[in-house]
Structures are given as C-alpha cells and as structure tokens.
Amino acid sequence: MFQTTTTNDDSADFPTAEGDTNTGAVGTWTHLLVTYTAPVDGDDSSGVMSIYQNGTLMGTATNLTPQYDSPCP
Length: 73
Prior knowledge:
Elements: E1 2-3, E2 16-17, E3 32-36, E4 48-53, E5 56-62
Antiparallel strand pairs: 1-2, 3-4, 4-5
C-alpha cells in the first residue's frame, strides 16, 4: 500500500495505490517500489502514485493536492 494525504487537517482524503493482498510469499524477499509524479496544472497525467512489486505494477491512484507538513508525525 502507498498512501498520501490531501490536506494537513481532519478532513484529509488519503489516496491509496494498492496491490493484491497476500501476493508476497512468507519467508521470501519482496522488492517494493513506489513512484509519484508531482502534479502539474493542465497535465492530466501528473499526480499519479504507483506501486510495484518485484517489477510488476500492482496499483495506481491520483493525488493532485499532496500535502506535507514536516512538524507533523
């Protein structure tokens, strides 16, 4: 699961890119990679969150208003 937030308050949405559950074998290393393309005004292909497992795209989501507040946990 790769999750981001849309605001720094209680009304936040949490866009989530997810893969299939139970696809990682117990006792075996699994390579996970996440990517995020920062939003660009007028570019519908931006703001995309992707999660890959062992090189295979497992899921995507879109977040056009990502937030980050460093003092928050």
